[in-house]
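Let's do one together. I've listed all components of the complex below, 693 residues spread over two lines.
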Amino acid sequence: MRLIRNLAAWFDHRLKLGQTIKETMAHPVPRSTASWAYVFGSASLTVMMLQFVTGICLAFVYVPTADQAWTSLQVLNHQQAFGWFIRALHGWGSNFMVALVVIHLIQVFLFGAYKYPRELTWIVGVFLLLMTLGMAFTGQVLRFDQDAYWGLGIGASITGRMPLIGTPLVRLMLGGPIIAGETLSRFTAIHVFIIPGMLIAFVGVHLLMVLKLGVNEWPMPGRIVKRETYLKEYHDLTHKDGVPFVPDAFRKDLVFSGLIILALVACAAIFGPFGPKGQPDPTVVQAVPRPDYFFLWAFAALALLPPQMETFLLIVGPVIAIGFLIAMPLIFGTGEKSWRRRPVAVLSVLLIVTSLAAFTELGTYAPWSPVMDAWSSVPIPPKLLAGRTALERQGALVFQSKQCLNCHALGGAGGQRGPALDAVATRLTGDQLIRQVLQGRGNMPAYGNNLSPAETTALVAFLESLHPPGQKPAQDASLVSAVPTSHNTADTAEH
Amino acid sequence: MTEPNQGDGILAQGLAAPKKISRRQMLMTLGIALNAVAGVLFAVPVIGYIFGPAKRKEMKKEQAWITLGTLAQFPEGETRLATYRNPFVRPWDGDTGNIPCWVRRISADKVQVFAINCTHLGCPVRWFPQSGLFMCPCHGGAYYADGARASGPPPRGLFEYEYKIKEGQLWINAGHVPTLAQPPSQACADQSKRFACV
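Okay, and this is what the predicted structure of the assembly comes out as:
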């Protein structure tokens, strides 16, 4: 024990760091900040450090070339000792980090911590968020599989929509005319050197400002931030009623970080690494590209945006969103901090979080995408065929072979691109069905060129039979007399 | 009357100053100038290196005629997948240098060659002969057999490659990822109103 103390003293005599470290650790913070609400920033930092460690480990084996990257991931998964676990830690770590950074941002926003004098801390934080997302996207590319390949294609297509500079930007992003070796090399350099370097620098500045300006106090309704008085108020708060950062506030950070690491290890051990999915071979066109979960909301938004405003929103949208995040503390730099007195702020958070969650949820099953193999793998439910005429059954065959099931569901199975057709006859008359099938409308392509008259007749006969028992099929109002005819009453009685 | 005198003094000092550059000051100025020149000499090639692929001269070169093989592989009235090795590849590009496309043989000497990429966001469209549609797995775009937009978010029909038939071989003019800003050669003219074409 004595030896260690002497050794420490020897080093400190030369390094002269002990005093600074001691002062930093013991610096007073408002008593109210020793709270569980304040643990997300430090947890993000912890996960980032772990990402550095596992990332460096992966670099020992991973080969960043287009022809070998996928194979090296397989080696990591199956041959390298603990390779699968390091990959799992790194993949789950990225999920954890995105989640923690977003939670940290929401907490800081709701607590008004971006207000004077911490505006710049927030702005640096916005850049840290963008870098985290940048790491997530580039990391997804380094897991060089089908998803990565087509994800790059999506990136190139979005970039290519930029007016005037679109093409040079696409080239700059891909490093050449196609998605290939140089694309992966570029993304490796960005993922391994450029963004991590910037992250270290920006995290350093972010932390330095937290130390110099102090941790934001727990906001109290009615305690207004004014440029003239805030610094003195904060000084009083920390010096008259403050606690030392270590150990009083640090305890909870320590416990939470420990829990996060445990959760991360558990996720990695239980769920294993992400992919890689199919080989990055563009000639395998049976690909169903999907982004990682933190970009599912964008994937969903891109399917659901009105097409005519898409290019505008793709290019201007991010500029406005990021611009607003950066400008926000400069516009709303003073005033009320407490969420209890900031209904617009709270509602904005709720609206954005709900929208992102809803888009993400939709993105997990992508109802707008045709189910490419439904026509050959999903049968028409037998109960929709029982007791049908020969013509109607022939129509069911046409329905199956013309791949209607790729977009339309029957009996709960099939695509969701178009409406489910279990009760289509209650919505459309025979004539309307013919018109809809042959000419298409809205999102439905026209099948006029692709159906013979006999096929159309059979198909529409089958569709006309699709109405639940007890429900009348749709009728053309202009052809129905006000007084029920014998035919109509018979039809109703039948069910 | 002291103020004007003071003013004169400052003025005189200011005029005299340039003559009195000390050796230390000059060394500092020289140091800054040297590093500025060195910085520019250093930065120009670095920027040129990073931005190299985006040079217009480079981009113009990246288009070439490639054969998809004999025309006989593509029966009349059918649409089939063809693949070609991109003419601009690196030795380590592996499978990513192989590019697929859809060939629709209309008649003896008439074909359409479609890029694999959906015009919406570049996902690989798949041909379904039974329903006569190209469908995209990403955001639900669909195209008719002739490449025209059928439904979904795509802003236009499928990208088409310029082609020629020579001695029974089908050739296409290709070389880069087709995007709205830079469709394959043929469609370029049609789109030039909205987007810059190389």
